[in-house]
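Posting for a labmate who doesn't have an account.
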Amino acid sequence: MAERGARLLLSLTFLLLLLFTTAAKSTDKGSVARHFTPFWFLVEPADILAVRGSPAVLNCSAYSDLAPRVEWKKDGTFLNLASDDRRQLLPDGSLLLTSVVHSKHNKPDEGYYQCVATVDSLGTINSRVARLTVAGLPRFNSQPEALMVYQGDSVVLSCDVNLDLVPFTRWELNKEPLDLDERIISLPSGALVISNVNESDAGLYRCIVEIAATVKASDEAKVEVLAETGMPRQLQFLRPPVLSTKVQGQDMLMPCVATGYPPPRIQWMFNDKLIDSSGNRSKIIGGGSLLILNVTDEDTGMYTCLAGNENDTLQASAELMVQVPPQFIKRPTNIYAHESMDIVFECEVSGVPSPSVKWVKNGDAVIPSDYFKIINEYNLQVLGLVKSDEGFYQCMAENDARNMQASAQLIILEHDVATPTTPSTLLISATNDHVAQAAGSGPTPSAPRDVVASLVSTRFIKLTWRLPAEPHGDNITYTVYYKPEGSSRERIENTSRPGELQVTIQSLMPETKYVFRVVAHNKNGLGESSTPLKVSTQPEVQVPGPSPNLRAFATSPTSITVTWDMPLSGNGEIQNYKLYYMEKGMGNEQFVDVGSLSYTINGLKKYAEYSFRVVAHNKHGLGVSTEDVVARTFSDVPSAPPQNLTLEVRNSKSIMVQWQPPPPGTHNGQITGYKIRYRKGLRKSDTTESTGGIQLFQLIEGLERGTEYSFRVAAMTVNGTGPVTEWVSAETFESDLDESRVPDKPSSLHVRPLVTSIVVSWTPPENQDIVVRGYAIGYGIGSPHAQTIKVDYKQRYYTIENLDPSSHYVITLKAFNNMGEGEPVYESAVTRPLSVPDPTPMLPPVGVQATVLSHDTIKVTWADNSLPKNQKITDARYYTVRWKTNIPANTKYKTSNTTNLVHMVTGLKPNTLYEFSVMVTKGRRSSTWSMTAHGTTFETIPNSPPKDVTVVSKEGKPRIIIINWQPPSEANGKITGYIIYYSTDVNAEVHDWVIEPVVGNRLTHQIQDLTLDTPYYFKIQARNSKGMGPMSEAVQFRTPKAESSDKMPNDQASGSSVKPGGRHSGDDFATSVGKPNLSGNPTSMGENNIPMIVIVIVSVGAFTIIVVVVVAVICTYRTTSKQKKKRAACKSTNGSHKYKASSKDLKPPDLWIHHERLELKPIDKSPEPNPVMTDTPIPRTSQDITPVDSSLENSIHQRRNSYRGHESEDSISALAGRRGMRPKMMMPFDAQPPQPVISAHPIHSLEKPHHHYHSGSLASPTRSCLHHSISPRPLNNSICHIDRVNSSESVRNTPSTEPLSIPGQSICSVEHPDPDTGTGFLSTSSEEETNRNPPTAHVRPSHPLKSFAVPNSSGTSFESPVLPSTPLLAQAGTTPQLHSVKTASIGTLGRTRSPMPVTVPSAPDIPETSKMLEEVESNYEPDELTEEMAHLEGLMKDLNTITTA
């Protein structure tokens, strides 16, 4: 029986497991998006040149998870390879042609091939298109002919064939292969060029065309080499440049072969610029042909070959066009979408010529329609998706150079599958990480109610509706589905935010009926659809149509007349026309209003192209624009002369004239030639010669020997001749000098050094029979090759300027001509020293001010006393502004130069104190740095999130977690609060997360009532007074499974950073420190160790109690003895007060201890009324600051005052100056006392906290204790407040709810125990301090003392306090008032100090205080002043003794 029950239980368990697995699979199918399938071409077919009768292979290979099926297209039609004997499909997808068939009338294999790969139920992709060309033995278009050539000349042997049909052409000399080099080259057409012919080049030449094993030879041509006679021969081109088209990356050989005697010199120009043929990419080979390696798009342009000798010049031009294959700047990416959505496949390509783009879907061309549109020239937009739109889309780009393709997949998701947040852009199989969680399984909303069209226009409709009757949730969003009536494609429009009950549908067609329905959806998914609503858009407003017969024609070089006809559909009376026009390529369109059907536009540019369009206007507005028409203004004569006219004397009878075209924009038409005028000497009559085309030089021959000629040049157009250049002169040689060799060295060279220059003079070479065209002067310190200057051959001296004084220069001089530079002559010289007195320093700028403009900008202004009163800068002086953060450790400055008296310093850090100083420089004179100015930049929102976010569970309370963090690295101001976001769904919208605010001074927070065994995600966002900062990354934490007290707080829970969209398995958190071992006894180890643990705990506890008792006894004994001494000091103080009240009227000098040197200085008193000194507790941390009582809020706003950081010492001193009593201060010092620092910190308001930085910030805690002689509490109960070490936080006062009503009590300071023992009287907790509100001591001197570190102005008023505070003493029955509060502390930089006890006397009311001041002023005697000085000197000695001890 038991066995049957066990079997039944096992069967039931298996059945439940099977049902659960099936349900999980069905849930996964409906909630997870399908991943993108990898599908692309590994190899695509390339262009091929096949040989008739030989096999050919077109390669193709596709990759996919599923085996693709490969097919082939030829000329756009699929090939039937099953029944084709010559064409076979190879296993990898390549196409094999076993034997290429090709004849004159039958070319079945030549054409364009394309590989098509298909995966069933997935889609189809097409490869690029490849061209198959069949090679053949073409006829020779021209064959080499017999030639006779002079030695040293060039020769061209023709052999022109169709290179598209011939893969190889070579030449033979005497039936032996001819080796090619830079002297003997083969042109792209196949012709052979031999330059600088010699006797070895004579023989029989023929060209060979070879295809496979078939060879075809041209006729043989005999070349005879003749000896050079020296007789001039006419200059002519044997092969001029020809138009060339190349693909980017290929090499280009532009032919240019010229012949004549003297031998011509070949130069090349590219777009009017001379080409440097000695570069790495371009060089002249074959006597004149230009070779450019690896051409690019920048090489496209006009190339001109210039051939010239002493007798003539020739030029010929040809254009090079470089084609750039298509390149994808942006490829289409895979897209997830739902039905009815609109999507855009982006595709951006570049190339030359501009590529054409077409789109293919699953192998078929996409035809543009209302739902498939080409936008932004290349992108494909699909509107209103349907299920059949799924598949692969390809962007096919093509130009004359090549064609390319790129593909992307579109997946249509089911309605219950959410669109992945970060869809994969690559064809990879693992895309589950990018899929969002599907909708829940709860109830969905019912249909929205009362859907109406509240606004209907011609091209938009506004819909409104009411909330569904059953929304089943709060954050309800809506989707509007719409389509033209009768269409099957719906489009969608979503509301902009949850809960919005209206939407406006844009881009509709006028006078068209649309069907609308609205669907609400909540977190569980889409709800029911509303009843379809049919609405028709309004008809279009009747505006005029386009004006027909728009024409534009030029009437002058600066005017164009435009005419048009009335619109065929004017739709009413035409009020006027707008004529728009702009210069082509400029982009700034202008318009004029015209009332007739024609208009003449004047003031246009000469020979410029303009576009025009017309728009008619009626009472409904502007109509439809016409298409643009283009017209060009007439040409005119050039408006500027040619540039850079130069003369070069060739010999005794000729001068070469060279120039450059007029500046761009002044041609006013096509330059047809240039007119050269020249005259002899100063004669008025001149001679004219003209050039044609774009020739920029002319050799003027037939001149007289030793005669000066003047030249000028003018440019010509078809309209006439433009302005001429200035006259330029040159003198012909007396005789025809020799220029077959370089000149000799100059006969002499002399130098005369000055301070910053050297005068160089020379005489020409002794051999006057060699042409000298100029002199080259080289010079430099220690080497003559540093710089070179060339001067005219007539010049005999030159001054080298801008040299350094007292420097040794080496100078060289060389004569040169067209053959090169001659032998140099050297000389050296030392420049004279500079005997100038040292400049006196300038006065530094004054009145430097720093004005804060924003969180990163401060304006620095200053005045310059060395300028006139109007502060106007008239010389070449400049100012240098330097700045750095006001931190002692930061010594690195940043500088900037300016010529104004104001400078904007940008790029600063927010909420940072900077110091600025300015220096002026004029020539070699500079001033010292000015006095510094300071400015603190404004706050701005935090730039970084809170860091180090950790989450732990609370011990014993698994439903409560504790989240800890650290402030942002870039807080950019005081953090005023934090916002904690937490949710169980990391991918939920921000507004769906639970929010808990935290005050800014806390770095930990508890979150309660969480669900057990549930993963939570936490984010934290910081805020300051300027706004919110960025969120931290999500941290995951799983709450414990059960409320168990024997588990550690972190059992089964851990925190980890989780990015949105990621998944985290719960198994990752299954183990942690302290979790019991499931395989053994979980409690055995604990039971064995219990006795030992108890013994250890009891021993440690007993030892701790003994140590505490001993320390307490020692501290109590030391404190009691010191309190007795302090009471005696209090009595002595009260006695001195009485004595002062009966003294004579004598005003003593004010004294205060300097914060750096501990010296005494006199200072003036302030005539301000006496504010009552109050007490403020000093919090240990920022969390100890108690907020201001709400009952005092109005008084806070009425009596708020702000302090500047450098006023703190003056302010406390001014308060001290209004007291009538003197306190006693005891300051502990170390054995070697450094310079103490006294700083006063104002108590700032809670609403607008300020940060004050002091160069002498305290390095030790300050403890202030207060004892009252009459108090409701025990007499010896002291209240101490300890400020944390190195704390720089602002201190706030705590209002007291228990004012002391006994006016005459005595308050004495109690000295603390030795700080090394670490004991003292401390308040038990911040809560106790807040409840009891004891008054706390501040430095409150009764004698008029004042700091002299920063002088206080007489107008300083303290009637407006910073914060409400509790008065130290208040009259019985009166309401406590708010007073200005400052805390003072004395410490030593860089050393740890014991606390400073401060004696605080009782404070009488205001009338009594005034009376006491009067008595003090009238009761001082000279002897008493001397006694007080001696008393203070003794006090200083005691301090030094304590420090030494």
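Reply:
Got it, the structure tokens are right above this. The mean pLDDT is 75.
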